[in-house]
Amino acid sequence: MKKILLATLTVVFAMSLFSFIAASDKKPAWDIPAKYKSMQNKKPGDAESIKLGKTLYTKHCKSCHGNGKGDGAKATSLKTEMDDMTTAAYKALPAGTKYYMAFVGRGDMPNFEKKIVDEEERWAIINYLDSL
């Protein structure tokens, strides 16, 4: 009886441990403040904006994000797995959510609010991402 109880407790403990490990491997959800959720892109995604966005993206983002798939040269050195920004799921995100993720950041994604201060340039990057 003691052996069965010990075996059962061991199995329950192991399952709990594996569940914890599996849960910690998942990407945490972004906590987007309401101010950003309702934000709209007021800059047109025209050819000029997309061209500017591509230039800025190449300078500030490509080393980690690659061609939008999270496969840049620095990507393997990061702890956080990056989303593929070329997918329909990413493109369906609200503009303000993309803005928050790109410029406020979290964890391995640095804050770019002081590096890219011009609103037109910020939205140009979002327009470029939407064009991928």
Q: Note the run of SSEs as H and E.
A: HHHHHHH
Quickly count the domains: 1
Structural class based on helices, strands and sheet pairing:
mainly alpha
Low-confidence stretches: 19-25
Q: Averaged pLDDT, please?
A: 85
Task: Give the CA-CA distance, first to last residue.
Answer: 63 Å
Shape verdict: globular
Total strands: the figure is: 0
CATH fold-level label: Cytochrome Bc1 Complex, Chain D, domain 2
Largest sheet: none
CATH level 4 superfamily: Cytochrome c-like domain
In the CATH classification, which architecture applies? Orthogonal Bundle
The helix count comes to 7
Rg calculated over all Cα atoms: 20 Å
Beta-strand fraction estimate: under 5%
